[in-house]
Write a sequence for this structure.
């Protein structure tokens, strides 16, 4: 399989007399623009676009051996279907001569895309999460920039450990897709070590929105803390059911959902007090070695997408994948896939997103999760304490008093 | 384990399924059309309710008549202009055409509303009253009542009006009905319109307890299938029974001992298959 | 209540009445098909390393292989469906369950019991067939819509059960060892597709096939005439399951990753039915043409960038319009029974519409 190596030479960039501009680096990404994952796919795309905008318009290209190469990211819509992800990734590689891949959204899609990356021996960097199953297969060509699933609720538990009164009785509601289950399994192992008692632990089919029965069951165990490992639609449904059934836990945490503006707009005041672990929030204080600072990132997001809210971690995840790839290419001094792959394994750089580095299996275990809470309709970061910009509101007020 | 509450919740959920099933059953029973775009139409109802709520401040229940009228219009138009063209072709062709319609409607919704999640949260959404140890949320109770009201209206239309007579006649024997002077074109359009109106109501109810996105309707097509077959094709009473039963089964399946909610769909469908094997015409259907 | 399906005399009488124009057209068709087949087999060989180093042009690339393999896969699934849905008249909406069982059979046998891939494929054929034979006994007592939904229910239920059991890898699924050759899977699927078409051809010409068609037209009459309807139905169902399982088994190794999403995807069932419909139900070539046309459309309409949503709408419009004007399927034209023209279109509209 021939990889087009960016040619050196060619005209000089405008203004600067010493740097030359080479051919574009083509990157492919099959991402959901329609179908079930369209929302999250769209957020990821925004993140990638922020990166591309910075690389092309601010940096004027990635520097490879003194030659700048602009970046072209080709997006294909996989319709939220895993097999389409694979087919389109192959198309991007073969027809469109993409040199690298960025990952899709969703565990199943990422799994099939990872297979394509392995078969074609092309590096794929993804920032949207994937279950451990992909990363313990010994695949060499897939890299994930975000913290593994097992860390998702660990931070929440650590934080809850320090609360008073301690919410020791825990109810866990989990979707049954592999990513959600990874999170839940970690909770099942970690919670007892911190003195929590799991009083309810049930999983439901991925995508179910009739969860009132489950919530009612959970209620009868009188939990202090309700943890949901699932997705946005389910988070909304559970929150509504909890209100309707008067399930008054001291703490509600959802792995996915609360970080998006949709959660707050769908639920209004009912979204308050909700806690969620996050790969990233605008409150983190990382000092970046390159690319925007956190504040600049937020500003760039607002400028590019005419938004007033802050970017959520799906957006940031999309950006982080691009950043990792870029740095690896620069470090490798080449766009040769083998060299870039090696550079990725050795990567260790701090960005607005946190440290980007990969362990032996391709996962980023050097970046901690943060914990957010929705207070008065706004997102604040409450943990770890050194990046918190607000104090936790605990315990959550009973529904009848809101 | 609060069994009382579980059962009540199941029945309340059943209400939604009654609304979901009514439209599907009518169109399938009379027109022999399996409407793959049904879930999408439910979402149209949901979005309409959301629009009215967010931009007009109209309560979802108060807005039901508007839902009904708008969705009826859309359904009527769709049938008259598009689906009527293939209604005499073998049964599976309507399958194909509604598949195309589903693609169009879902993606049109996506284009207009973006994939953002929306929901309708009213000020009274948490209010509930207690019957002993069982908490009954008002909003779900009203959803159930709205669904039953819809069923009653549908029954009345189908059994006590001339329009209903025409619809039933066409359903029983298309050619004979035509011979008697009934306009097939218009009756079909009416029927589909009524089915769409039911979908609209279902969408309004659904918007109150979950998030609405363009693709969130898909599971409801499948569930409509099941509800209709479970109860039996063609009669309002059958669909009511099927819907209530399915709601019960779904909720109770979540508490299945040793299996748990992860098997919820397997149990629900298992029950369906079992019912069909014991009573192939559905619980209340006419004997084949 | 109109619950019957329309009789399909045109296809039953395929062998009987043929116009001279039709006969000529059929000869042309046969020649075209032979050429196409030769091309399908030979052209991909041009992309092997030996051919490439000899300087031959690489006419197809990996992406084209992928698409071709997918098309072949759908030919198998659609033709398999055709046996139970098109010939016997039992519209199974849940045939993807056999795809999934076949896929998992290969995945489990290879990764857990260290069978060879070939051995796994044998399992991928037998296990679904056995399952179909068993569950067909009660299931095939249902008719029409009820059977359709029940079969769908089975698909959902089995998929969910598998998703819950760690023996099958649970939600994380199973990863097979990677086999890099795209060529191999192309030929495997192509072979399976040819097998499926051949089986359909044989069945249509056999007593078995006539029995199935009789069942479709009027089951009670068929029984009265001495057709063992239960046996025939179950045989058709099991055969359909075996073929679908084969496709699933090949797919499992090709895709490397198997889980509920991938293996028990209801879209596969729906797409395969659509393909049979588009191409012409109950015919030999219907599924083939339908698979080619629909997959081509899907790939073409897969949107790039911001256009994705619009192209999907376009696809929906195209399908809707196609169904209105081509209700009998593409094969109708090429079978020599009718010629594409305004008269045909008008007639179909009149016969199908209201």
């Amino acid at each position: 399989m021939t990889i087009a190596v960016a040619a050196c030479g060619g005209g000089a960039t405008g203004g600067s007399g010493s740097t030359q501009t080479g051919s574009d680096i083509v990157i492919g990404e099959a991402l959901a623009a329609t179908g079930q994952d369209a929302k999250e796919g769209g957020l990821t795309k925004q993140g990638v676009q922020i990166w591309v905008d910075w690389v092309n318009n601010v940096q004027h290209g990635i520097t490879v051996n003194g030659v700048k190469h602009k970046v072209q990211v080709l997006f294909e819509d996989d319709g939220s279907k895993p097999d389409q992800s694979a087919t389109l990734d192959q198309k991007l590689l073969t027809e469109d001569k993409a040199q690298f891949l960025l990952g899709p959204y969703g565990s199943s899609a990422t799994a099939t895309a990872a297979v394509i990356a392995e078969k074609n021996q092309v590096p794929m960097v993804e920032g949207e999460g994937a279950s451990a199953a992909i990363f313990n297969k010994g695949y060499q060509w897939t890299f994930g920039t975000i913290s593994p699933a097992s860390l998702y609720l660990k931070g929440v538990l650590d934080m809850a450990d320090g609360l008073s009164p301690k919410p020791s009785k825990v109810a866990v509601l989990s979707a049954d897709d592999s990513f959600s289950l990874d999170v839940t399994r970690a909770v099942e192992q970690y919670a007892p070590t911190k003195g929590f008692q799991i009083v309810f632990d049930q999983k439901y089919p991925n995508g179910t929105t009739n969860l009132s029965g489950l919530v009612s069951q959970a209620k009868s165990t009188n939990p202090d803390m309700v943890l949901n490992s699932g997705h946005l639609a389910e988070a909304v449904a559970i929150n509504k059911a909890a209100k309707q059934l008067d399930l008054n836990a001291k703490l509600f945490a959802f792995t996915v959902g609360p970080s998006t503006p949709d959660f707050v707009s769908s639920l209004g005041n009912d979204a308050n007090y909700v806690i969620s672990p996050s790969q990233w929030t605008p409150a983190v204080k990382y000092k970046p070695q390159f690319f925007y600072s956190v504040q600049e990132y937020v500003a760039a997001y607002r400028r590019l997408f005419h938004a007033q809210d802050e970017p959520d971690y799906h957006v940031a995840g999309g950006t982080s994948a691009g950043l990792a790839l870029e740095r690896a290419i620069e470090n490798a001094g080449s766009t040769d896939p083998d060299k870039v792959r090696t550079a990725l394994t050795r990567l260790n750089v701090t960005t607005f997103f946190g440290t980007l580095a990969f362990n032996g299996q391709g996962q980023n275990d050097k970046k901690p999760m943060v914990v957010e809470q929705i207070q008065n309709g706004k997102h604040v970061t409450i943990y770890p304490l050194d990046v918190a910009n607000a104090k936790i509101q605990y315990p959550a007020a009973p529904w009848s008093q809101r | 384990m609060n069994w009382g509450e579980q059962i009540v919740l199941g029945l309340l959920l059943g209400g939604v399924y009654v609304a979901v099933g009514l439209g599907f059953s009518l169109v399938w029973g009379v027109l022999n059309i399996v409407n793959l775009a049904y879930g999408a139409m439910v979402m149209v109802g949901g979005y309409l309710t959301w629009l009215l709520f967010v931009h007009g401040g109209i309560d979802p229940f108060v807005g039901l008549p508007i839902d009904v009228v708008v969705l009826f219009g859309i359904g009527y138009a769709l049938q008259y202009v598009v689906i009527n063209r293939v209604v005499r072709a073998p049964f599976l062709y309507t399958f194909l055409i509604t598949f195309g319609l589903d693609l169009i409607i879902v993606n049109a919704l996506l284009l207009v509303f973006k994939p953002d999640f929306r929901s309708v949260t009213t000020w009274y959404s948490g209010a509930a009253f207690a019957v002993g140890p069982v908490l009954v949320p008002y909003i779900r109770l009203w959803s159930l009542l709205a669904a039953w009201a819809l069923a009653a209206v549908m029954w009345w239309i189908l059994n006590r009006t001339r329009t209903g007579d025409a619809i039933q006649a066409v359903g029983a024997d298309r050619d004979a009905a035509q011979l008697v002077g009934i306009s097939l074109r218009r009756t079909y359009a009416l029927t589909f319109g009524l089915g769409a109106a039911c979908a609209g109501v279902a969408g309004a109810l659904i918007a109150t307890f979950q998030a609405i996105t363009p693709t969130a309707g898909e599971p409801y097509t499948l569930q409509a299938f099941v509800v209709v077959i479970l109860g039996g094709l063609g009669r309002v009473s059958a669909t009511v029974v099927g819907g209530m039963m399915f709601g019960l089964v779904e909720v109770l399946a979540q508490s299945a001992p040793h299996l748990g909610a992860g098997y919820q769909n397997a149990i629900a469908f298992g029950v369906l298959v079992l019912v069909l094997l014991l009573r192939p015409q559905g619980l209340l259907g006419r004997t084949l | 209540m109109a619950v019957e399906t329309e009789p399909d005399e045109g296809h039953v009488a395929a062998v009987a009445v043929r116009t001279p124009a039709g006969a000529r057209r059929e000869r042309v068709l046969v020649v075209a098909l032979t050429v196409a087949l030769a091309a399908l087999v030979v052209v991909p060989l041009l992309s092997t390393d030996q051919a490439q180093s000899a300087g031959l042009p690489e006419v197809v690339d990996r992406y084209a292989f992928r698409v071709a393999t997918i098309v072949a896969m759908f030919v198998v699934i659609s033709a398999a469906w055709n046996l139970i849905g098109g010939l016997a008249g039992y519209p199974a909406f849940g045939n993807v369950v056999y795809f999934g069982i076949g896929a998992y059979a290969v995945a489990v046998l290879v990764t857990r019991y260290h069978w060879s891939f070939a051995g796994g494929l044998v399992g991928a054929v037998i296990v679904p067939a056995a399952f179909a034979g068993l569950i067909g006994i009660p299931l095939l007592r249902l008719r029409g819509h009820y059977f359709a939904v029940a079969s769908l229910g089975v698909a959902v239920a089995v998929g969910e059960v598998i998703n819950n059991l760690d023996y099958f890898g649970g939600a994380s699924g199973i990863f097979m060892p990677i086999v890099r050759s795209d060529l191999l899977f192309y030929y495997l699927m192509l072979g399976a597709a040819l097998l499926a078409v051949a089986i359909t051809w044989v069945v249509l010409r056999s007593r078995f096939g006539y029995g199935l068609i009789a069942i479709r037209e009027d089951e009670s009459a068929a029984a009265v005439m001495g057709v063992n309807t239960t046996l025939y139905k179950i045989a058709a169902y099991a055969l359909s399951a075996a073929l679908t399982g084969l496709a699933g088994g090949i797919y499992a190794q090709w895709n490397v990753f198997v889980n509920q999403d991938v293996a028990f995807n209801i879209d596969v069932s729906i797409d395969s039915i659509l393909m049979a419909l588009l191409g012409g139900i109950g015919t030999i070539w219907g599924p083939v043409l339908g698979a080619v046309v629909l997959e081509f459309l899907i790939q073409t309409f897969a949107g790039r960038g911001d256009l994705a949503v619009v192209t999907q709408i376009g696809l929906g419009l195209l399908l809707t319009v196609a169904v209105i004007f081509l209700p009998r399927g593409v094969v109708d034209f090429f079978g020599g029974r009718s010629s594409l023209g305004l008269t045909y279109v008008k007639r179909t509209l009149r016969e199908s519409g209201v």
Remarks:
- Chain B has one domain: 3-214.
- DSSP finds eleven helices and two strands in chain B.
- Chain B has a mean pLDDT of 88.
- Residues 3-214 of chain B form one domain.
